[in-house]
């Protein structure tokens, strides 16, 4: 399966959500994993809660680490590989920060030497505990940790792009020290691609780590502006994959669609299956996709309070582990891809020879990256071309005259936004 297209789910436990680590029940975990494996998926992404695993800077709880390893082993017994997110600071609208970083102990999450050393030890410990497990894919540094560096977070730890890059490099090195040679990545939300002045950048996303991770949510203004069935909405994940590739140093870097889901009510429950199918079909038409990890495996129980409404129904399965229509779509497409690969090997999509030029002000800090956001000129032009049947890639303007770069990517035609809008 190493060279196969990967299909997985972000594992949301049916009992207690991610608070299940407080009352860890391996039998319940096994039942959840059975239902995920029943969809024909090949991996899960799992989320240790940082404050529960490292409640003190000098204490990574051995029992919590043992439970993580037990979960990974249970997944392996069911044919599921495991990717582990380390520094869980933000999940489904809630922040998870240990007390040794807040209030009386307030220190920068990205720049304080003591905090950095504690984070390193934590990531190295988790990776090291799983390093000998054959089904361990690797670490993700954390889930959308960039949110803590900038607005709209209500209490951000401000950093420069240089500090953000140094932090990422140090955390990735800690993962590598714990489990050498694994698939270690970092993941941010779409501010890296869309928000002017954000210290985490597309260049960092596309050049650090083993792959570029993309989180593609249409509640960012896409579904609101273009509607649930608009071309821009159904191709949003594919657009982000292609935009991410524009920042890479060269062709062939894998892109992992690490989060994508059908958020209600912007995507109505009776339209979730259509959105899921369209999103997957369009993403799978992009070269260099490593895999798709759907958000999420199971619905959040209505017994839990204070989640945004859209969070409760994002699962491929219900909280009672029944397969939903979107889950049926993912299972069908995953099975069809697997069957094709077994019969003829993996055949990548055709190269996208037409590229839309994006002037973000230079790849390093992209001061004008908002042109790529919903409503921006690049986004609008890409969506219009796609609706007309074109398969556009994206090339940054500072590389548009680099013939070697274009040739390496198979790009033979450049289109400017002014040619389209």
TrEMBL record:
<dbReference type="InterPro" id="IPR017853">
    <property type="entry name" value="GH"/>
</dbReference>
<keyword id="KW-0378">Hydrolase</keyword>
<protein>
    <submittedName>
        <fullName>Glycosyl hydrolase</fullName>
    </submittedName>
</protein>
<dbReference type="GO" id="GO:0016787">
    <property type="term" value="F:hydrolase activity"/>
</dbReference>
């Amino acid at each position: 399966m190493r060279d196969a297209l990967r299909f997985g789910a972000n594992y949301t436990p049916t009992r207690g959500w991610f608070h299940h680590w407080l009352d860890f029940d391996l039998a319940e975990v096994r039942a959840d994993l059975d239902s995920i494996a029943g969809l024909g998926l090949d991996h899960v992404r799992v989320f240790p809660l940082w404050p529960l695993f490292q409640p003190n800077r000098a204490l990574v709880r051995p029992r919590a680490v043992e439970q993580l390893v037990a979960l990974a082993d249970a997944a392996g017994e069911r044919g599921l590989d495991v990717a582990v997110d380390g520094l869980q600071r933000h999940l489904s609208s809630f922040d998870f920060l240990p007390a040794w970083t807040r209030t009386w102990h307030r220190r920068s999450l990205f720049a304080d030497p003591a905090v950095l050393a504690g984070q390193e030890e934590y990531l190295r410990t988790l990776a090291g505990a799983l390093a000998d497990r054959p089904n361990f894919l690797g670490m993700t540094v954390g889930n959308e940790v960039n949110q803590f560096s900038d607005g709209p977070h209500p209490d951000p730890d401000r950093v420069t792009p240089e500090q953000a890059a140094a932090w990422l490099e140090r955390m990735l090195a800690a993962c590598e020290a714990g489990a050498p040679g694994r698939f270690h990545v970092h993941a941010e939300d779409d501010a890296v691609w869309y928000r002017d002045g954000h210290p985490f950048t597309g260049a960092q996303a596309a050049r650090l780590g083993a792959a570029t991770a993309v989180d593609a949510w249409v509640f960012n203004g896409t579904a609101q502006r273009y509607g649930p069935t608009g071309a821009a909405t159904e191709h949003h994940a594919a657009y982000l994959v292609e935009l991410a590739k524009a920042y890479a140093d060269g062709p062939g870097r894998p892109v992992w669609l690490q989060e994508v889901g059908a958020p209600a009510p912007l995507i109505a429950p009776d339209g979730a299956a259509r959105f899921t199918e369209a999103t997957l079909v369009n993403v799978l038409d992009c070269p260099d996709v490593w895999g798709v990890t759907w958000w999420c495996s199971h619905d959040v129980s209505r017994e839990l309070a204070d989640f945004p409404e859209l969070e409760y129904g994002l699962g491929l399965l219900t909280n009672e582990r029944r397969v939903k229509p979107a889950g049926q779509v993912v299972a069908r497409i995953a099975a069809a891809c697997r069957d094709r690969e077994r019969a003829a090997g993996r055949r990548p999509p055709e190269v996208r020879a037409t590229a839309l030029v994006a002037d973000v002000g230079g790849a390093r800090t992209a001061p004008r990256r908002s042109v790529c956001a919903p409503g921006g000129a690049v986004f609008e032009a890409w969506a219009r071309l796609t609706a007309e049947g074109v398969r556009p890639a994206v090339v940054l303007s500072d590389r548009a005259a680099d013939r070697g770069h274009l040739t390496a990517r198979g790009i033979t035609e450049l289109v400017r936004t002014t040619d389209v809008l």
